[in-house]
Amino acid sequence: MPLICLGLEGTAHSFGAGIVSGDGTVLSNVWDMYSPPTGGIHPREASRHHSDVGPTVIRNALERAGISPQEINLIAFSRGPGLGPCLRTTATIARTLALRLSVPLVGVNHCIAHIEIGCLESAFEDPVTVYVSGGNTQIIAYAGKRYRTFGETLDIAVGNMLDSFGRAVGMRFPAGPEIELKAEKASSYHQLPYSVKGMDLSYSGMLTAARKLHSEGTPLSEICFSVQETAFGMLAEIAERAIAHTKKRELLLTGGVARNDRLTDILKGVANRHDARFHRVSPPLAGDQGAMIAWTGVVQHRAGDSLKISDSHVLPKWRTDEQDIVWREVDG
Ligand code: ATP
Ligand code: FE2
Fold first, then answer.
1. Confidence class for position 332, pLDDT limits 50, 70, 90
2. Distance CA 29, CA 7 (A)
């Protein structure tokens, strides 16, 4: 019987259900995003959203894939990192389904899933990964059975910086796409803090400075342009250093901010300069969704990983480098 995995994603704002077969075909990928009317995400309200929309999202995923619940033979869920209430709601749905269908359960690290879905799409074997989203900004490379974080933000994530700036100037959440559109209309650059410290970076100073420019009446498109050029330039610098040091020959861009075309172009330039191949995860698989959880579940299950229901508590602070990558054959 072919392996068919249902993956559930629910670490933060989105609840997603994706169905992926053992050969890596994405049969369906459905998600519903909670968008708070004002302000940031409230964990309890987001988790209520997940329990409200969960059954419909899962039903739609099954329908679009054209399979019955009985054909599912593996359940994977996002076990962490993320917001506690959201993780617990998603885990409860996953455990219930695994028990009801009598199939194994696999707990997936959300950040690792962003990498694995990129490796599936690109067929990369050993990339340097730039993982950029609302909650994370990390440069990651595999070494000694772990995905090691070579560099990361010391304060807020690049997506969070974009969303916070957008909120301050009246944009809807998430603001990344609107900032990208506005930036395309400008070419005047205003100086913003460029904050790279070794392999780490920092975005909170840039957020304050961009807000100040706005309060001084600088045209919004020019601020958006300047924010993108500075923020993405910082990422390019540490990605370049990571490639130069690790001598890896593949550069992968993943996470919600990977949807940005300007960031993609800048990192493509870095890869070209170092004779490395480049891949940006395709926009539907770049953000939070269930297919990446399902595929990582397949990979882990094949390597013999499974989770007893009684051990399946969630891990809100689970770091990328805390999981043994038992399924990788290359020795980085
Ligand atoms: P994680 O839990 O991995 O941190 P997340 O909860 O932030 O993920 P994602 O869907 O991976 O969710 O990423 C959402 C982020 O991507 C938001 O900050 C959003 O503004 C940003 N984003 C989406 N599209 C674009 C774009 N075109 N340009 C820049 N940023 C974008
Ligand atoms: Fe994510």
1. low
2. 9
Ligand with an atom nearest the CA of residue 253:
1
> What pTM does this model have?
0.96
- Any atom of ligand 1 within 6 Å of the Cβ of 180: yes
Read off the pLDDT of residues 123-137 as tens digits, 9 standing for 90 and up: 999 999 999 999 999
Distance 123 CA to ligand 1 centre (A): 23
Quickly count helices (H) and strands (E) in the chain. Answer: 10, 12
Residues in Cβ contact with 196 at an 8 Å cutoff, skipping those fewer than 6 apart: 234, 237, 238
Between the CA of 274 and the centroid of ligand 2 the distance, in Å, is 28
Distance 288 CA to ligand 2 centre (A): 5
Residue 331 has pLDDT above 70, yes or no: no
Our answer on whether the CB atom of 127 is closer than 6 Å to any ligand 1 atom is no
**What whole-number distance in Å separates Cα of residue 4 and Cα of residue 9?**
16
Residue 118 near ligand 1, beta carbon < 6 Å: no
Q: Which domains does the chain have, with CATH numbers?
A: 4-114+285-322 (3.30.420.40), 124-283 (3.30.420.40)
The number of residues making up the chain comes to 332
Q: What is the DSSP letter of 153?
A: B
User: Looking at ligand 1, which atom is closest to the CA of residue 81?
Assistant: 2
| Cis peptide bond N-terminal to 174, omega within 30 | yes
Q: Please work out whether the CB of residue 134 comes within 6 Å of at least one atom of ligand 1.
A: yes
Counting beta carbons within 10 angstroms of the beta carbon of residue 218, is it exposed (0 to 12), middle (13 to 18) or buried (19 or more)?
middle
DSSP-derived secondary structure letter, 22: T
